[in-house]
Amino acid sequence: MLERIEEQREYHSPSGLRFKVLSLARHAQDCSWPMVVYTNLEPTYDAPTGTVWVIAESIFLRTFSEL
Fold first, then answer.
1. Closest by alpha carbon to 39, among 10, 2, 66?
2. Rounded to an integer, what distance in angstroms lies between the CA atom of residue 12 and that of residue 20?
3. Interval 15-47: pLDDT, tens
4. What is the DSSP letter of 54?
5. pLDDT score for 37
């Protein structure tokens, strides 16, 4: 499990694909929810390279890993 997330750093998804964190953000309707904005560096089964994704920071920390 990751301990912290750095902007502009690459991480592996649970499926082994590379993603890059673009920024750390807050949820618009509840700013107590830290979010991660990231993009895929290779195509996924359902999206082309360069798609922008958003996920709760707690989920990213539990599911992604360092390269």
1. 10
2. 9
3. 999 999 999 999 999 999 999 999 999 999 999
4. E
5. 98
Nearest to 19 by CA among 5, 33, 29: 5
- DSSP E strands in the chain: the ranges are 10-12, 18-26, 34-40, 52-56, 65-66
Q: Is the pLDDT of residue 67 over 90?
A: no
What are the tokens at 35?
């979010």
Amino acid at 15: S
Amino acid at 64: F
Q: What is the DSSP letter of 1?
A: -
d(CA 2, CA 66): 7
Q: Could you give the strand order of the β-sheet that contains 18-26, starting from the edge strand earlier in sequence? A: 52-56, 34-40, 18-26, 10-12, 65-66
